[in-house]
Write a structure and sequence with these properties.
Low-confidence stretches: 5-12
Distance between the termini: 121 Å
Shape: rod-shaped
Structural class: mainly alpha
Strand content: 5-15%
Bound molecules: zinc ion
Number of strands: 3
Strand order of the largest sheet: 1-2-3
Length: about 150
């Protein structure tokens, strides 16, 4: 079976066994991934965190080829799997929160539009009132002026 890395830099699983504490030669926690190659679709594997970087120590191990040599090592695999599951859960939670925030944002946008419309309507009303006031003022002034004009003539 071929490895997901085509360069050949990945040694066979037989060379590697699950390291103590799930830490490879780089001194970092190995990662649990899923293969998407046509040869091994959906097959899980463990890989050095520094894969495809100059720091890569070459660690690679198919999950189904993990040789459980002691309960301690099995514990490490379980621990890493649990960590992964927890990360996935946290990611889902974050996604939910993001959706929630998006909905709240939409809601706020709607309210803003509503407020804008209300302000616009209020402006119109105030303008109408002012216009009415001005019209009354003109009528009153005209009336006063003509009144004075008539009395002035008499
Ligand atoms: Zn490494």
């Amino acid at each position: 079976m071929r490895r997901p890395c085509s360069s050949g830099s990945c040694a066979s699983s037989a060379t590697y066994s699950m390291p103590a504490g799930g830490i490879c030669a780089c001194g970092e926690l190995i990662v649990y991934l899923t293969s998407h190659t046509s040869e091994n679709p959906g097959r899980h594997f463990w890989r050095c965190r520094n894969f495809k970087t100059p720091k890569d120590c070459g660690f690679f191990l198919w999950d189904d080829e993990v040789v459980v040599q002691s309960s301690g090592r099995e514990g490490v695999v379980d621990m890493l799997r649990t960590e992964l599951e927890e990360s996935k859960k946290k990611l889902d939670e974050l996604k939910m929160k993001l959706e929630d925030t998006k909905m709240k944002l939409e809601d706020t946008k709607g309210k803003l539009e509503e407020s804008k419309n209300k302000i616009w309507k209020l402006d119109c009303e105030m303008l109408n009132k002012n216009m009415a006031f001005v019209a009354i003022l003109i009528v009153v002034l005209a009336w006063v002026v003509s009144f004075c004009f008539i009395y002035g003539k008499m």
